[in-house]
Amino acid sequence: MSVWDDLQGQAPVVAQLKQAAQGETGLTHAWLFTGPPGSGRSNAAKAFAAALNCQQDDVTLRGCGECAACHTILGETHSDVTFVRTEKVTITIDEARELVSKAGDRPSTGRWRIIVVEDADRMAERTTNVLLKAIEEPTPRTIWMLCAPSPADVLVTIRSRCRPVSLRLPPASDVADLLVRRDGVERQLADRAARAAQSHIGIARRLARDADARERRMETVRIPLGLRGVTAAVMMAEKLVRIATEEANSSNDERDAAEKIALLASLGAPESGTLPPSMRSQVKQLEDDQKRRAKRSITDSLDRTLTDLLSFYRDVLIIQLGNAVELVNVELKGELEEYAGRSTPETTLARMDAINKARVRITTTNVAPLLAVESMATSLIQQ
Fold first, then answer.
1. Are residues 41 and 20 located together in one domain of the fold?
2. What is the pTM for the complete model shown?
3. Are residues 159 and 185 in the same domain?
4. pLDDT category of residue 26 using cuts at 50, 70 and 90
5. Which of 88, 96, 160, 197 is the one with CA 20 to 30 A from 218?
6. Per residue in 88-128, pLDDT tens?
7. How far is it, in rounded angstroms, from Cα 136 to Cα 105?
8. Range of the domain at 96
9. Sign of torsion, CA 185 188 191 196?
């Protein structure tokens, strides 16, 4: 199995990266992978890193997916390849400085020292400036790979020094093929999950594997059908935020407790009594990090929920404009057609704009999520 197999519908990108990995053309010290969520930009960077350090002597076979280097890079355990992603709101300056220090080391076993920053859009300007000199004047055997939704999400001083790699969302049929081939999902379910996820590979896999996730999504999508009056809008907002919070917290609580137990054990903390000041400060730091991670988890979960809600109005607009493309929520076709007949395309676009504004406010400002969603909900009320 080649490292390129998971890059569904990205043939031009694969060809570009293969050429660079084989040394034919275009190998530079810094790369910027961009594409919408679900396009596989981090997977593309990982595959490229594996191909660059692949142990195959024949350059045309690099990225084989079978050698020790490919296996360890895909498993994120290779000593010369560092993967950076954050579960907090932003990547900190201290973390950026650690990357710069690591980038200065020569590779120990591979041909290249590679730094993959999966959340380059989550760095503040002053944090990004810490990386600027290292990217502008890298050591000879170091390659930087930055990933972001769009070039505009990265400072111009950074992106001007990177070679761009632009990915797109693959067709839903390609995502379904991947679920069938790699995850053993039944074909009909794979098609449904890929369509509902709007070609986002990670979300499609979750929907295909988790019946509760499919049920929560359908519950979200059906909300506009009963949205009449301010009271219903407020209740809808509370429900959306509660679902997102519960889903995020369910995966965080157990993890937080395990991390605290592990930290106390590593510090040799007493089983009872007051902790020494030095230990209390480290526990406090862990708890602060966990709070930041929880905020990021809730934000991401709510953003996914609003994306599902947006698909309802996307389908309504498609119907109002003459069914030019396939619906996402085919199961609700009759209800969607009835809803579409009670409004105009202009009204639907305004409602979609309200949802997108709420998503931006939630993900980029410190606004309380409930207030942002309540404001959005009142814009969705059926007249």
1. yes
2. 0.73
3. no
4. low
5. 88
6. 667 888 888 888 888 888 898 889 999 999 888 888 888 88
7. 16
8. 10-166
9. negative
